[in-house]
Amino acid sequence: METETMEQPVKKHIGQNLQRVRVYLGVKQDALASDLNMSQQTISKIEQQEDIEDGLLKQIADALGVSPELIRSFDLERSVYNINHHNYREATISEGATTYAISQQVNPVDKIIELYERLLQSEREKIDILKEGK
User: Fold this and answer.
1) DSSP labels for 68-132?
2) 73 to each of 49, 56, 58, 100, how far by Cα in Å?
3) N or C: at which end does the chain have fewer Cβ atoms within 10 angstroms?
4) Whole-model pTM above 0.90?
5) CA dihedral for 42, 47, 53, 55, sign (positive or negative)
6) Nearest one of 67, 53, 59, 83 to 21, comparing CA atoms
7) Which pLDDT belongs to residue 108?
8) What is the average per-residue pLDDT within 74-90?
9) pLDDT exceeds 50 at position 102
10) What is the pLDDT of residue 97?
11) DSSP code for 14
């Protein structure tokens, strides 16, 4: 007696996918909730749902800046595989390659210094205005 086995496609848990994408993007539940005019508890409940209504999924995806399809089809194992097998720290830049991306890197210390210099200039302008008013 032969038995034929058919593999059932694995049903994705859209709520878990949403949570993983949200965490990957560094967005907290309360921030997402605020963007969607919902409570944090509502976002938590949505992330526990196996399926999410298309209209709501589109709203959430738009708030996160991704496509609904990315959330639907997110695969944690593939993501981890890609991260592990594409180690960019070991990448080299070939001769003649554009250095635009490298030159666009931002040094956070420089940004902090720039911010404080602007703040200091603003305070100096306030002091000058107060001195002129006396």
Assistant:
1) HHHHHH--HHHHHHHHHH--GGG--PPTT---HHHHT---HHHHHHHHHHHHHHHHHHHHHHHHH
2) 15, 16, 14, 32
3) N
4) no
5) positive
6) 67
7) 74
8) 66
9) no
10) 47
11) H
